[in-house]
């Protein structure tokens, strides 16, 4: 029994579409969510020194590579930020400032001098945490 081309297409269209949908969803689920690329790139350019001999700098490079977007965010939603992410968000607009390297770097510098716990003005600064090889927003919490 021979099927014509149009009968084969009609009978297998649902299966093909389902396969494509599964492939797209699997690909999307496999990729981690990333922060605003330009902000993440500038953070790395300023603070990450993977080839350094300094143990704290190597530790930070490892932490940042593992944390990815969770340097500034918590959980899987880009809308949820940690303290460091909130401090940067107060100074930067993701649409207007994404290409303004000078403004991004100025914001990184300003936030580095801020206390990591706003409720405790004498707490260690975000910059001090970075110098210690720690993520400025604290350890990544797995959900």
Mean pLDDT: 83
Number of helices: 6
Low-confidence stretches: 22-34
Q: Using only CA atoms, what is the Rg? A: 22 Å
Number of domains: 2
Task: Give a short overview.
This protein is mainly alpha-helical and 143 residues long. The protein is built from 6 helices and no strands.
Describe it:
With 143 residues, the protein is an all-alpha fold. It folds into 2 domains: 31 residues; 95 residues, no CATH class. Helices cover 54% and strands 0% of the residues. It starts with a helix and ends in a 12-residue tail after the last helix. The relative contact order is 0.13.
Q: Which features would summarize this protein structure in a list?
A:
143 residues; 2 domains; mainly alpha; 6 helices
Write the layout of secondary structure elements.
Elements: H1 5-30, H2 37-47, H3 55-67, H4 83-91, H5 101-112, H6 126-131
């Amino acid at each position: 029994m021979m099927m014509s081309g149009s009968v084969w297409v009609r009978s297998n269209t649902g299966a093909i579409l389902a396969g494509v949908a599964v492939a797209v969803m699997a690909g999307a689920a496999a990729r981690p969510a990333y922060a605003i690329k330009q902000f993440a790139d500038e953070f790395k350019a300023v603070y990450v020194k993977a080839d350094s001999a300094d143990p704290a700098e190597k530790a930070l490079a490892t932490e940042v590579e593992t944390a990815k977007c969770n340097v500034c965010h918590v959980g899987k939603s880009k809308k949820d930020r940690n303290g460091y992410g909130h401090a940067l968000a107060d100074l930067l607009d993701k649409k207007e400032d994404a290409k303004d390297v000078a403004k991004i770097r100025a914001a990184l510098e300003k936030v580095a001098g801020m206390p990591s716990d706003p409720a405790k003005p004498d707490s260690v600064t975000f910059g001090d945490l970075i110098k210690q090889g720690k993520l400025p927003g604290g350890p990544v919490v797995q959900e």
